[in-house]
C-alpha cells in the first residue's frame, strides 16, 4: 500500500538545503512532475505553513505537508524527502524537521489507506527510528515494506 | 455514545492519523463504547464531540470546543495512550 506511492521516484535525499521552503518545493517535485498535483498545490502548502501552519509537524522531526484537495490535486500521491541537517519549519526553532512527507489527497477518502499505513508505521518507535535513519531509497523502501505487510 | 474527535486544520492528514491511533489505544486499553472520528477545525462546534484531540499548534484555536486534549507530539503513541486513558475516565469509561 505505502510502496504503491513511495518508491525510487518519490523517495528523495538531500543535504544542506537552504530552508523549509526549499524542502517543500523539493518534496513536492515528484508529484508535480507526475501530474498528481499542479503548481497551485505547492503554493498552497507554502502559504499555509507561512501563515503559521506548523501543525503539519507530526513530532520526532517528521512533517506531513499537505493542503486541501481543491487546491490543485489531480491524483492522490505521496512523496518523501530526508534532509540533513534538519531545517526549521517556518523558521521556528520549535519545529526542526529532518523528514518531510508530501501528501496529495484527491478527495477526503482516497488517501486514507496509505495514510493509515504511514501513521501506523510512524507511531511504532523502532520502525520510525529506522525510517528516520534511512540514507538511501533502498534503506527507506526496506522499512516501508514492513508497513505493507501488515 | 461518547465521541472523541481528532481535529486538524484540513481534516485530512494528521487528524486521521490521530483518529487511527486513538482507536488503536482504546483497543489496547480495553475501553469500549467510544466513537472516534476526525474532522477539520472549521467544521467542529462544541457539541461535535465529548473530547477534541488537537496538536499543540491548534490548542488556542480549539479552545472553547469543550474538553480539548492537546497533543505535544502527534505520532507519540505513549503520550496519546496516557491522554486517551485520562479522557476516557473523565467521560466515564474505564478499562
Explain what this protein looks like in three dimensions.
- The complex is a heterodimer of chains A (150) and B (95).
- In chain A, 43% of the residues lie in helices and 22% in strands.
- With 150 residues, chain A is of the alpha/beta class.
- Chain A has one domain: 3-Layer(aba) Sandwich (Mannitol-specific EII, Chain A).
- Chain A has a five-stranded mixed β-sheet.
- In chain A, a hairpin with a 7-residue loop joins strand 4 and strand 5 (96-104).
- In chain A, helix 2 runs antiparallel to helix 3 (39-50), helix 4 packs across helix 6 and helix 5 runs antiparallel to helix 6.
- The model of chain A has no long low-confidence stretch (mean pLDDT 93).
- With 95 residues, chain B is α/β, with parallel strands linked by helices.
- Chain B has one domain: Response regulator (Rossmann fold, 3-Layer(aba) Sandwich).
- In chain B, strands 2-1-3-4 form a four-stranded parallel β-sheet, with helices on one face.
- The two termini of chain B are 16 Å apart.
- The chains are: A alpha/beta (150), B alpha/beta (95).
- At the A-B interface, strand 2 and helix 4 of A face helix 1 of B.
Brief summary of the model shown:
The complex is a heterodimer of chains A (150) and B (95). Chain A is an alpha/beta fold and 150 residues long.
Number of domain modules of chain A? 1
Number of domains in the coordinates of chain B?
1
Given as residue ranges, the uncertain stretches of chain B (5+ residues, pLDDT < 50) are none
Give the strand order of the largest sheet of chain B, numbering strands 1, 2, ... along the chain: 2-1-3-4
Strand portion of chain B:
25-35%
Q: Tags for this entry?
A:
heterodimer, A: 150 residues, alpha/beta, Mannitol-specific EII, Chain A, five-stranded mixed β-sheet, 43% helix, globular, B: alpha/beta, four-stranded parallel β-sheet
Amino acid at each position: 500500500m505505502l510502496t504503491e506511492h513511495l518508491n525510487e521516484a518519490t523517495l528523495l535525499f538531500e543535504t544542506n538545503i537552504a530552508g523549509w521552503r526549499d524542502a517543500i518545493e523539493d518534496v513536492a517535485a515528484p508529484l508535480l512532475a507526475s501530474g498528481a498535483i499542479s503548481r497551485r498545490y505547492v503554493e498552497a502548502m507554502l502559504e499555509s505553513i507561512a501563515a503559521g501552519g506548523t501543525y503539519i509537524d507530526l513530532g520526532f522531526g517528521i512533517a506531513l505537508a499537505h493542503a486541501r484537495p481543491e487546491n490543485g490535486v489531480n491524483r492522490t500521491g505521496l512523496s518523501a524527502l530526508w534532509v540533513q541537517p534538519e531545517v526549521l519549519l517556518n523558521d521556528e526553532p520549535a519545529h526542526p524537521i529532518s523528514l518531510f512527507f508530501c501528501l496529495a489527497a484527491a478527495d477526503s477518502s482516497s488517501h486514507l489507506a496509505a495514510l493509515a499505513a504511514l501513521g501506523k508505521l510512524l507511531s511504532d518507535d523502532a520502525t520510525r527510528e529506522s525510517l528516520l535513519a534511512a540514507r538511501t531509497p533502498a534503506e527507506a523502501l526496506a522499512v516501508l515494506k514492513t508497513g505493507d505487510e501488515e | 455514545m461518547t465521541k472523541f474527535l481528532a481535529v486538524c486544520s484540513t481534516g485530512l492528514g494528521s487528524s486521521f492519523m490521530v483518529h487511527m491511533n486513538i482507536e488503536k489505544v482504546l483497543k489496547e486499553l480495553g475501553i469500549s463504547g467510544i466513537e472516534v472520528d476526525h474532522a477539520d477545525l472549521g467544521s467542529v462546534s462544541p457539541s461535535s464531540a465529548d473530547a477534541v484531540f488537537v496538536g499543540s499548534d491548534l490548542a488556542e484555536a480549539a479552545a472553547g470546543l469543550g474538553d480539548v486534549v492537546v497533543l505535544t507530539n502527534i505520532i507519540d503513541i505513549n503520550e496519546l495512550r496516557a491522554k486517551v486513558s485520562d479522557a476516557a475516565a473523565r467521560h466515564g469509561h474505564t478499562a
